[in-house]
């Protein structure tokens, strides 16, 4: 009879390591020994995890995480989506929000109604004006979605902006309460069996720890899978060309918006992630188009504030995610573009897959193959969604953006774009990460309207259709204004100095 794994050693110091420990301890009900060994990744790697998507709510519920307590501990704000500035052209902005866009008419999606009116010569408003979440972002409002599915107030979802370093501390405490042990000392060396599988790790304290199974959460350096097991890294820089980032935390005196803000610049884009009382700012850029000194100016900080040095951040994935008795999770497995807002959820989802396919002591190749298949597909969807932003930017004011527009896109994204451009339809790929509304919001926000009307809309009278569209816009606007202010809602939860 195959023996179950009875010991797991997790190498890492950040969010991925402690999320893995907490989820595995809960899933296995502390029936096996889980030890976390510190590694030394760049401490800035985790900070960009703090902008997430609504799927995190499900994971936190499964972990028994109390929302108000988590938000207080991590100085979190609510997130209804992302405002994209200057992507289509300087001065233009739209909100990619979580949730429905308008409402279907019979079996016809709302964006198809908008496109029919547009092709009939009507001046159609921006697609974000038909999203309750986007209207709430514009108005500075927030409320939890209504439970009554008949209510317009149920048509959106939300996530968080959180301090990822504080979230790591939160998960560490959660894992420790469930019996996870943190080793004293830091990784110095990795030992292997004669068959190539990992045997043990040696710490700088001189202690040597062995285990049956190893999880590499050591960040982009991938000290187990990448270094000890020699798994190469495949870059996605052809599609995701920003290879440098500089970050800074800036105090904020104004109310926190319920959205992240991304703004395109001549050689890449910048991010503003609002926490309670401060913003995390990051400028992503191509080192081939901008030098490090000029990049720091994009953060808009007080000149008296010391700007940290920029660092390399190349998007891509390891060629394998699981080799022998070692699986990589987080940046040790892949580095997604921060535009995707998926880093935290990719960690959670990878651990959940591991739980579902939890190995015996003698790991089966079919189990490994299935884990890698699912993981690769998920990362592919995330890669494509980020690449969409670069490929469809309407900017033509710099060499960087002209090169982005001329570059080829991944085959899966090319297929999706061609299908949508012809008639506004979306393919149904396996292991989708984003909803149809996510794709539609960004596609139409960037001006990629379908060339032809949906056949089911051709019998509709344009004037009546436009009146319906205007009523929907009014409904969304009034529902958003009925919500309380975002900062007032945070204060009600016990947040300190939210603005």
Features:
35% helix; alpha+beta; FAD/NAD(P)-binding domain; 20 strands; single chain; 499 residues
How is this structure best described in words?
- This protein has 15 helices and 20 strands.
- By secondary structure, it is an alpha+beta fold.
- The protein has three domains: 7-52 and 163-235 and 314-381, FAD/NAD(P)-binding domain (3-Layer(bba) Sandwich); 96-157 and 383-486, no CATH class; 245-304, no CATH class.
- Helix 4 (110-119) crosses helix 14 (462-481), helix 5 crosses helix 14 and helix 9 (343-356) runs antiparallel to helix 10 (365-392).
- The model has no long low-confidence stretch (mean pLDDT 92).
Domain count, please report it: 3
- Helix content range: 25-40%
Q: What's the CATH class of the largest domain, please?
A: Alpha Beta
Strand-pairing-aware structural class: alpha+beta
Give me the CATH fold name of the largest domain: FAD/NAD(P)-binding domain
Percent strand equals 15-25%
- What is the 3D form? globular
The CATH homologous superfamily of the largest domain is termed FAD/NAD(P)-binding domain
Provide the low-confidence segments as ranges.
none
Q: Would you report the number of β strands?
A: 20
